[in-house]
């Protein structure tokens, strides 16, 4: 009888132990203020989506049907149906799409050129996309950068890659953003997990998105209207080269000033060490 009781107790403890450990792990996570903030941010995001649904229950179903159809003219008409609020709605729509990384922003950048004209549509799309990818960058870095740093600290090769991304992140992100049709969500995630600064990320994304968004939107615009104009693409390529040269020159000037300031600080620190103690 005693042996049976011991076996039963052992089975019960074996069942309860994983549950207890899971409970302790969740409790320790809640004790961390940053984890609580992350949960609050997630809750507020869900609450915002639910509030939109309450305000207009047909919004998400209608938007889904338009996107599922793949009809760019229908998408443009849907945005145009908001009347004087069409530009405002399109801005937030492009922002939201770039923040979550789905669906492809080319759908809305093309629609913007059909509604507002090529130049205004591209400018609107680039600004909204830049704000969207910046929000995504901040959220992803807030949620996952600490975990990435712990992983990087354990692997020397990852340390080198991380250091490289911090020093050359501007150039890498600029080139990546300039390439059309690369998924924005991928670049958002890579940027957030890397050591690139927020300033470098925003500037490189803004400058890089001009040529890529313009090329995507113009090709989509001309395809829908069946009116190709190679001259526009040539002008976009020329503008892209000028933008890259300007951004590269600006970044080099900033780096030069930072290096000069660091040199002054290092020399000052050496002089302080050489001074005899009183």
Automatic annotation (TrEMBL):
> For this UniProt entry, which segments traverse the membrane?
81-102, 114-140, 233-250
Instruction: Give GO cellular component annotations, separated by semicolons.
Output: plasma membrane
Q: Where in the cell is it found?
A: Cell membrane
Q: Which domain of life is it from?
A: Bacteria
Record keywords: Cell membrane, Membrane, Transmembrane, Transmembrane helix
Q: Where is the VTT domain?
A: 105-221
Q: Can the keyword Amino-acid biosynthesis be found in this entry's annotation?
A: no
Q: What is the topology of this protein in the membrane according to its UniProt annotation?
A: Multi-pass membrane protein
InterPro entries in the record, alphabetically? TMEM64, VTT_dom
Leader peptide range in chain numbering: none
Q: Which family does it belong to?
A: Belongs to the TVP38/TMEM64 family.
The identity of this protein, by name, is TVP38/TMEM64 family membrane protein
The top of its lineage is: Bacteria, Bacillati, Bacillota, Negativicutes, Selenomonadales
């Amino acid at each position: 009888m005693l042996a049976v009781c011991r076996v039963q107790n052992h089975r019960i403890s074996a069942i309860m132990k994983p549950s207890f450990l899971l409970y302790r792990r969740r409790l320790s996570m809640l004790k961390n203020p940053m984890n609580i903030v992350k949960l609050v941010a997630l809750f507020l995001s869900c609450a915002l989506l639910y509030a939109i649904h309450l305000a207009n229950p047909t919004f998400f179903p209608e938007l889904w049907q338009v996107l599922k159809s793949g009809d760019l003219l229908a998408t443009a008409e849907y945005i145009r149906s908001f009347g004087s609020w069409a530009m405002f709605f399109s801005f937030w729509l492009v922002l939201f799409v770039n923040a979550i990384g789905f669906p492809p922003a080319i759908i809305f950048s093309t629609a913007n050129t059909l509604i507002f004209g090529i130049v205004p549509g591209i400018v609107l799309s680039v600004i909204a996309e830049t704000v969207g990818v910046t929000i995504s960058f901040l959220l992803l870095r807030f949620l996952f950068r600490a975990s990435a740093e712990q992983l990087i600290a354990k692997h020397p090769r990852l340390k080198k890659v991380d250091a490289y991304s911090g020093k050359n992140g501007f150039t890498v992100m600029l080139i990546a953003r300039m390439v059309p049709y690369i998924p924005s969500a991928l670049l958002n995630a890579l940027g957030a997990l890397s050591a690139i600064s927020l300033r470098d990320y925003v500037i490189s994304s803004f400058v890089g998105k001009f040529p890529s968004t313009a090329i995507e939107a113009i090709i989509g615009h001309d395809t829908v209207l069946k009116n190709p104009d190679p001259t526009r693409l040539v002008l976009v390529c020329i503008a892209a080269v000028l933008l890259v040269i300007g951004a590269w020159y600006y970044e080099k000037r900033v780096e030069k000033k930072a290096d000069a300031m660091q040199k002054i600080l290092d020399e000052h620190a050496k002089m302080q060490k050489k001074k005899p103690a009183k």
